[in-house]
Design brief:
Length: about 260
């Protein structure tokens, strides 16, 4: 292989995106740096096969982040990275998807800057692009969507703090991360703000993994279908006419 990236430096933190699940979606640069790790701080969405690319002797620290499991609070985590870097080790901070998309990578980078720790960011394939590709849903399409918006559907006090009039415009695709628990609210609000009840929508569980499952429907039917299918996080919801292309464009074999 001709590609020769520069090596990891001790005392530096590398914020690396591991992609959405399929280990083949890690970047070459990410894999190269990971192979030089002294310590890897990783999230729960990182594929085990990717973690195994770190040297056997590298220390592995689980940073958690499942719903309701606050294994390491974010402030402590930020400072942990500072401490590890000050031990003059090559610190790999491995995150699912892309570090700068709903990954708190920005907060970690700010803490590193505040403490004068050198760092680099290696982008990853975010769930939206990876999962949509494997599920058979082009996020934009000249006939259907000229824009795409990524939002988090995290429920706060039983609702979502989102700009509903903007999200309910046609001609775009809306991708909702962390939206499963709030799927009813999400679909109701989009209809309430003007999208038709028959507007196409899809939900994908464990996209890009062999356990991937896709459920399609409309704003009216998706919540019930997702429940009937027993879907569990991580899931990604995709709303827009492009979701209607899924039956024709699906190519990745799903188990069920
Ligand atoms: N930084 C990550 C997102 C972290 S937030 C990225 O860029 O992808 C975690 C959320 O991402 C999950 O709750 C889920 O909504 C979504 N997600 C991540 N991986 C996924 C996958 N393989 N399949 C479906 N959704 C996924």
């Amino acid at each position: 292989m001709k590609y020769s990236p520069h090596d990891a430096r001790p005392g530096t933190v590398y914020l690396i995106g591991a992609g959405p699940g399929d280990p083949g979606l890690l970047t070459l640069r990410g894999a190269h740096l990971l192979g030089m790790a002294d310590v890897v701080v990783y999230d729960n969405l990182v594929a085990i096969e990717i973690l195994e690319m770190a040297p056997p002797q590298a220390e592995r620290i689980y940073a958690g982040k499942q719903r309701g499991d606050h294994s390491v609070p974010q402030d402590e985590l930020n400072l942990l990275l500072v401490r590890l870097a000050r031990q003059n080790r090559c610190v790999i901070r491995l995150k699912g998807g892309d570090p700068y998309i709903f990954g708190r990578g920005g907060e970690e980078a700010q803490t590193l800057v505040a403490h004068g720790i050198p760092f680099e960011v290696v982008p990853g394939i975010t769930a939206a692009s990876g999962v949509a590709a494997y599920a058979g849903i082009p996020l934009t399409h000249r006939d259907h969507a000229h824009a795409v918006t990524f939002v988090t559907g995290h429920l706060q006090d039983g609702t979502m703090d989102l700009d509903w009039p903007a999200l309910a415009r046609s001609g775009q695709t809306v991708v909702i991360y962390m939206g499963l628990t709030g799927i009813n609210v999400l679909c109701e609000k989009l209809i309430e703000h003007g999208l038709p009840a028959h507007w196409p929508a899809a939900i994908v569980q464990q996209g890009t993994r062999s356990s991937q499952r896709t459920v399609t429907g409309t704003l009216a039917t998706l919540p019930e279908r997702a429940r009937a299918a027993g879907l569990k996080a991580p899931t990604l919801i995709i709303v827009g006419r492009v979701a209607g292309l899924q039956p024709d464009l699906a190519w990745f074999p799903e188990s069920a």
